[in-house]
Amino acid sequence: MPRKTREGAAARRTNAPVTIETRESLDDLIGEPADAGPAGTGPEVAEGLVKRLRRVEGQARGLQKMLVEGRECEDLIIQLAAMREAISKVGMVVIGKYMEKCLREDIAQGKSGKEGLERALNILMKFS
Q1: Quick one: which of 7, 44, 78, 98 is 20 to 30 A from 92 by CA?
Q2: Residue 84: CATH number of its domain
Q3: From CA 62, how far away is CA 6, in angstroms rounded?
Q4: Could you read off the pLDDT of 111-124 as tens digits, one per residue?
């Protein structure tokens, strides 16, 4: 049987840097700018993050109660994993908004966006 190759996609790829000419084209790529809010989020996003963190708070109280009651280790680990996942999702939303903010600031100042991306990646590395 002859071997299939992926010439189409690979042939179209280039290593040329992507430049963004205007602010409007940035909006086309990443959507409308978020309203000012915590961590650069809009009010709806901030409200969702607060709800998620309140859920984590409840999970932490439940975990404390489970420890006092002497519950099984497996039950504790499941609860801890759920808390970790919820916090991770909050962090990723904040990081995503921060990346958007960094890129928007660089583009508005006529920069390529490389410095903003580097700042955002540094934050991502601290979180991971």
Answers
A1: 78
A2: 1.20.58.1000
A3: 52
A4: 877 888 888 888 88
